[in-house]
């Protein structure tokens, strides 16, 4: 399996993954393939710096869901740097820590195109320009019209309109394994239902 310690071109996909779903995997996989990246680091957030955005599942459960969902996907590597180094959760701090840990690698920060218009509101947005290149995968309802002062490369990807919040609602409303596996990898659905996550 490729490793950023050896250098190469790597994507970074950060998020709360609460839970991970097929939209995340589609985004990472499509950009990895189209941009011919060596791999993608999946970086789960420990805490969200925006206090208004609550993370429902605890960190260990979110990492376990990631491991279940990504089993056998050799281009993806789960990186727990935010927990290991007690980082703030701000994108710029995570990117800087990754660059220090893997100095031989070239990094590209992967986002959905729905985030392009809000990048300017991120902490130290101007400094992000010099730290990392942004690649945005197209998302239904968002596209080239969404501008940012940061340089962002837009990449066309297959369209999957899925959100973690909708999946959490489905689980709380009693959706079955068969329904949920259309949106979340089956192995992760099994973990969610077995542990009763989002039912509490």
List the helices and strands and how they pair.
Layout: E1 8-15, H1 22-34, E2 39-44, H2 59-70, E3 76-78, H3 81-84, H4 91-101, E4 105-112, H5 125-131, E5 133-137, E6 152-155, H6 164-172, H7 177-180, H8 186-195
Parallel strand pairs: 1-2, 1-4, 2-3, 4-5, 5-6
Helix pairs in contact: 2-8, 4-5
> Rounded to an integer, what's the Rg over CA atoms?
16 Å
Strand arrangement in the largest pleated sheet: 3-2-1-4-5-6
Unreliable stretches (pLDDT < 50, length at least 5) are none
The geometry reads as globular
**Count of β-strands:** 6
Write up this protein.
This protein is α/β, with parallel strands linked by helices and 200 residues long. The chain has one domain: HUPs (Rossmann fold), CATH 3.40.50.620. 35% of the residues lie in helices and 17% in strands. The protein has helices spanning 22-34, 59-70, 81-84, 91-101, 125-131, 164-172, 177-180, 186-195, and strands spanning 8-15, 39-44, 76-78, 105-112, 133-137, 152-155. It has a six-stranded parallel β-sheet with strand order 3-2-1-4-5-6. Helix 5 links the parallel strand 4 and strand 5 (133-137). Helix 2 (59-70) runs antiparallel to helix 8 (186-195) and helix 4 packs parallel to helix 5. The model has no long low-confidence stretch (mean pLDDT 90).
């Amino acid at each position: 399996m490729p490793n950023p310690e050896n250098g190469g071109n790597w994507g970074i996909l950060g998020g709360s993954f609460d839970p991970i779903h097929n939209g995340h995997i589609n985004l990472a996989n499509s950009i990895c393939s189209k941009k011919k990246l060596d791999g993608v680091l999946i970086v789960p957030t420990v805490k969200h710096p925006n206090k208004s955005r609550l993370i429902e599942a605890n960190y260990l459960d979110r990492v376990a869901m990631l491991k279940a969902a990504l089993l056998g996907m050799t281009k993806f590597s789960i990186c727990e740097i935010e927990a290991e180094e007690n980082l703030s959760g701000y994108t710029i701090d995570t990117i800087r820590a990754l660059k220090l840990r893997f100095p031989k690698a070239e990094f590209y920060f992967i986002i959905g195109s729905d985030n392009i218009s809000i990048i300017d509101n991120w902490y130290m947005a101007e400094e992000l320009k010099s730290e990392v290149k942004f690649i945005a995968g197209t998302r239904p309802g968002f596209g080239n019209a969404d501008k940012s002062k940061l340089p962002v490369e837009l990449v066309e990807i297959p369209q999957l309109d899925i959100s973690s919040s909708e999946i959490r609602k489905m689980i709380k409303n009693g959706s079955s394994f068969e329904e949920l596996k259309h949106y979340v990898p089956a192995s992760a659905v099994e973990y969610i239902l077995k542990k009763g996550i989002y039912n509490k």
